[in-house]
Amino acid sequence: MRPLSLRWRLLLIGGATILAAMALSTLILAKLFDRHVQRVAVSDLQDQALVLISVIRPGPPAWMADQPRNPAWLRPFSGHYWQIWLEDRPIRSRSLWDVTLDVVGPAPAPGRERVLTLDGPGQQRLLAVDQQVLIGQGTDAVPVRILVAEDTEDATLARAAFLRDLLPWLGASMAALLAASWAQVTLGLRPLAQIRAHLQGLAQGRRHRLGGALPAEVAPLADQLDRLLDDRDRELDRARHRAGDLAHGFKTPLQALLGDADALRDRGHGDMADSIEQVVTQMRRHVDRELARARIRTEAGTARTDPSAPVARLVKVLGRTPDGARLDWQVEVPPGTLLRIAVDDLTEALGALMENAARHARHRVRIGLQQDGAQAAVVIRDDGPGVAEEDLARLVDRGVRLDRSRDGQGIGLAIASDIAEAAGGRLVLANASPGLAAALHLPCDAG
Fold first, then answer.
1. Does the keyword Transmembrane helix apply (predicted)?
2. Measured by CB atoms within 10 angstroms of the end CB, which terminus of the chain is less buried, N or C?
3. 300-443 — its CATH code?
4. What is the mean pLDDT of the chain?
5. pLDDT tens, 345-381?
6. Please, what is the angle between helix 270-295 and helix 343-360, to 10°?
7. Where along the chain do its domains lie?
8. Cross-strand pairs, 149
């Protein structure tokens, strides 16, 4: 399973954080609203308690001059109640009807009050203010306990209405925060896109290194990559020289072995001489291919070559050879197309392909250029016998020679394929009916 991109990870984390923050904010705002509603309700209940105190007359015993005419206190089970204890004798509002509110615990000290919740009639949940006051003066003062309560359903409905009004605003705020988070992530990751563009430039040969024109957070990464590229180039250069030195070191001993084979043949040991020559020929194929591979330029990504010039030079050279002199060379490679390959590499690859075409053509060799966007192909087509379909894939293998009646080591096509792959392209072989078409596909600068 492919892991999520860095962008999506940051967006998901930011979205989850914003969602959690919005949920927490909703809970906090609802709690604050509940506390505010409760403070308002308690303040209202305190005012109602003062009304009740004003109708109590001192005794002994204390008595109520008249019951307040508040309609809510007169309507049964209205949700607004009061209950007074005059010397432990409870007096209830008419709204309580025959229900006595059960209050747990002793009365508060005189002059003190407490806020509590009670179970009311009809499964109502009540918010109540419980307090005790002294009615009268001096030693004649009588303690009176007053309880004023109201149903919390109105507060619950107000809370629900508050949340209904709040949620659209919270949703709009969350959408704005998500958009801001997306913009932040997009702008924050833009330097990574810049690095990607620089890497594409490296791959396409438009840049030599990533460079240092990057933000401070990613500049060390770019510097480290540039150092790695420098180290890679130095190591490839050393490996190329070592391979070339090794291949050159083998050529002299192999030539000496061929001389020994000739000497053995002169002495009548033809079978032994043929065996030595066969082994030496195979080894020379390996050496020659490694020499060719060592000559492939490691800086091919930054090179640009117009194929028309190498093709013209190769046609001129091959036209002087016995195979090329008898052929009609038809060249349709207009100037102006720039292939991303070093001129020496392109010359060597085209030389191997054109030499192979000259070797097998009957009358004519055609060389053309086909361009398709970021790729171009130099197509070399002969009118020879072609190749069996089952042998096409084997032609680029090292040392494969399908026609052993002619000279050659069977490594030309393999070298051309190696050069094309090193430059980011490929060699495609196909029967042209008649003949063989070799298409050297290479990246180019699209015009």
1. yes
2. N
3. 3.30.565.10
4. 83
5. 889 889 989 998 998 899 999 999 998 878 899 999 9
6. 140
7. 58-152, 203-295, 300-443
8. 81, 128
Share of the chain above pLDDT 90, in %: 37
pLDDT digit string, tens, across residues 170-226: 999 999 999 999 999 888 888 777 777 777 777 666 677 777 677 777 778 778 888
Q: How far apart are CA 394 and CA 414, in angstroms?
A: 10
**Spatial CA neighbour of 132 closest among 104, 106, 112, 115:** 112
- Classify the C-alpha dihedral 335-339-343-349 as positive or negative: negative
Burial class (CB in 10 A: 0-12, 13-18, 19+), 263: exposed
Q: What is the DSSP string of 25-87?
A: HHHHHHHHHHHHHHHHHHHHHHHHHHHHHHTEE--SSPEES-----HHHHSTT-SEEEEEEET
Check the CA dihedral 297-312-326-388 and report its sign.
Answer: positive
The residue ranges of DSSP E strands in 164-204, in sequence order, are none
- The two three-digit tokens of residue 94, written as one number: 């008419």
Burial 328-346 (b: 16+ CB within 10 A, else e): ebeeebeeebbbbbbbbbb
Asked whether the predicted pLDDT for residue 75 surpasses 90, the reply is yes
Give the residue from 417, 438, 436, 437 showing the smallest Cα distance to 426. Answer: 417
Q: Which residues are within 8 A (CB) of 75 and not within 5 positions of it... i.e. 6 or more apart?
A: 94, 95
Domain 203-295 part of CATH 1.25.40: no
Residue 447, token pair as written in the block: 């015009």
Please tell me the distance from the alpha carbon of residue 400 to that of residue 394, in angstroms, as a whole number: 7
